[in-house]
Amino acid sequence: MNLRRSSVSERNDVEIWFDCNACKTAGTISPSKAPKFKKNIRVLGIVFAALSFLGFAMGVLIILSAGVSSFIAPLSEKSPEAAGQVLALTLVVLFGVGCCVIAIVCGFLGWLFLLRKKVYKCAKCGFTFDRT
Ligand SMILES: [Zn+2]
Fold first, then answer.
1. Most buried among 9, 29, 40, 126, by the most CB within 10 A?
2. Is 84 a residue whose pLDDT tops 90?
3. In this prediction, what percent of the chain has a pLDDT beyond 70?
């Protein structure tokens, strides 16, 4: 891409403005940000982020409810029944932690899908190209 600094840029010290090669307008191109991925992948990213939020909330609720139930009924007796309950409670807590871990991974993927990249964008025709 052959860029020529527009005369418009002399009025603006902060942003660099270029002439647009697509619509042949002087000084309409400025630094901007655009989504890195296509629309369907960004939708997936939003779904992942929502799932991550729900999964994390569920995991925390599971851990909290396990904690509350062990607080209400302390398992001090050394009966086989109590041991079973401890095991069940441990599994529930592990399940909750698992939910949180999966949620964090989902959230990270969602965030990746929603990343934006630096571009130059034409204010008139919307023409963009990478700014690297
Ligand atoms: Zn243009």
1. 29
2. no
3. 83
Ligand 1 center–CA 8 separation, angstroms: 15
The angle formed by the CA atoms of residues 95, 57 and 63, to the nearest 5 degrees, is 40
Residue pair 59/103 in contact by the 8 Å Cβ criterion: yes
Q: Report how far ligand 1's centroid is from the alpha carbon of 74 (Å).
A: 70
pLDDT of residue 5: 55
Which residues, 6 or more positions from 89, have their beta carbon under 8 angstroms from its beta carbon? 66, 69, 70, 75
Please state, as a whole number, how many other Cβ atoms lie within 10 Å of the Cβ of residue 61: 12
Residue spans of the domains in the chain: they are: 7-35+116-130, 39-113
State in Å: Cα 87 to ligand 1 middle: 66
Separation between Cα atoms, residue 128 and residue 48, nearest integer Å: 27
> CA of 114: how far to CAs of 45, 46, 48, 110, in Å?
6, 8, 10, 6
In angstroms, what CA-CA distances link 106 with 9, 50, 51, 88, 98?
Answer: 43, 9, 7, 27, 12
